[in-house]
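The aim of this short unit is practical: by the end, you should be able to scan a pair of folded records and say something sensible about each. We start with the first protein, listed as its amino acid sequence and then its structure tokens.
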Amino acid sequence: MAAETTLSAKDMAAKAEHQDRLSELERDVDAPDPQQLKRIKMKVDLRICVVLGVLYTASLIDRVNLPNAYVAGMGTDLDLVGNAYSLLILVFFPFYICFQPPMTAIAKKLRPGRFLGTIVVAWGLVIVGHGLVKTWHAMLALRCLLGIFEACFFSSCAYLLSTWYVRGEVAKRNAAFYLLGSLIAGFGGILAYGLSKMDGVGGHAGWRWIFLIEGIITIAFGLIAYFLIVDFPEDAHKSFKFLQDDEIKIVIDRINRRCLDVETPPFKLGPYLANALDWKIWFFAANFGLTSVVTYAAAYFLPLVLREGLGFSEAAAQCLSTPCYVFGTILGLSESVLSDRIGLRTPFLLFNCVIEIIGVVVLGYAKPSGARYFGAFLIIGGAQSNIPLSLTYQANNIRGVWRRAFCSATIVGAGGIGGIIGSLTFRSQDAPQYRPGLYTCITAVCITFLSVCTTTTYFYVQNKKQSH
């Protein structure tokens, strides 16, 4: 398999043109000793990966707490009959998709700390509103607002991460940001179950306390994040000091030497939108979007499948998804560390696709409930692991600040489209087998497999040409 540290032929030519400049830059910069570099990366990890991971945890819990609230009685209180529940899930995504493309550029202009901290507080207020509505139509409007605010978040985070690390360091950080957030969010079912036991406190139903408490926690996180999130490397001196000037220079210079794209040219709308002509960007988006079909389907419907399809109790249905996410986190982190070590992404992406397919088959066709539950482990483990690998795969093959920004927004927008598909795949009338949803997941995984093979083969051929 081709190593995903490769670049396209056009990018390789651009790299050659800049070689003289880079050689001069390398001579001017004092290489840091390993211990100093290790200290710098530790500081960056704590202020970026940890903080963004905590916020992403809040994002995931807030985005997918609907099934837990539904199981806890929201469906009855709000009279969610027919397709009302699916509609509440669905309306989030058009707004999430449409507001993606400009967000990385806006974050760049406004500085990430101020931008991300503010929108986290905003969507926390929206989640509190979820717990106060009297009709599901009012919640429908709040789901639209939530889609707008969360559109600002993920692509900006993915872009911010890609600007602080060289290519060989990205997979572990993407995994830490996404998988650790997913792991903690996987305990959201247990948290929701506990909060639902506040039924009657303050005159509110238990499902309302799920939204109220989780929204308040999100607001608190956003206020803290306003002061903790750092800016891009070239603007780090504007943030609350966490690196010295010489340390910032080391970060910028080593990324310049390895990636060629820390220096930011002026933003121009035409060249920015022209990145849409690069077919590879759409294949990267397909990888992420189709994987998101599976992750969203699991997040929104696994508690319902466990209860209605496998016959588990309400408490078990809310809590049994957590072990699946623990497995996904362990698998994804292990693969990401090994992926960075050997410089390959493709074998891991394809392996995860295979175990997803096995998981879908087991969940759909096995007879014992325990065996079908094991299938859920494989589905969630493979899909969760492929999300950060898909992000790393595209980041390793994209050069240029605004091109990278466009690609980050595009793949996260594709993730929103995946969310729309995932929100429609498992229907109550298909219980207990849920065959249409399972077929959709298998199709998404197979197309992802073919997409990764196509782009990897292209990079392999182009690198062969460059080497001759």
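Turning to the second protein, read its sequence before its tokens, just as you did above.
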Amino acid sequence: MYEYLIGNVTDVQPDYIVVEVQGIGYRVQVANPYSFDINETPAKVYIYQAVREDAISLFGFHSSEEKKLFQKLLNVSGIGPKSALAILANPDHQGLVEAIANNNVSYITKFPGIGKKTASRIIIELQDKIEALLPTFKLEPQISNQPVNDDQMNPELKDALAALKALGYTEKDVKRTQKALIKEPPMSTDQYLRHGLSLLN
């Protein structure tokens, strides 16, 4: 079982990154791929390995706390890796913890693939573990100086919208978010994605 990988991020896609470690490229599914930089500086990516009969998958996180939160969500009946990543993609993890503590079902049902029944199950199964769900997440936004063309979407916005689709949000939700984001000043893909998730939730 892997604990973490230290290597260069060589590719970023809407639903995964590639981490190269000693000449081997590991495909790692992450909540927000665009929070990772493609550069020559090695990154430390915490890893959760899922083994099934037909596949071995790697899931990556910025911190051990984020990984633990992912594992706690996986322990909830009805929550799979994709749903857990979609929940973690929203950077407001404190809001998630508060929603669990305060029985706020409506907050949790805003995540893709989470209905009232599953949201209630998350609250019931994790509420007594609330103290362990208070990690400090320090993900610094990346600034982009690339100008925005008012007549068409810039590449950063396109990538962010693709990431929302990869997380499971509907075409209707993505288009609604696109209308709001296109009015915003230039951002990095990571910032567009974070802002889009805050609008959706």
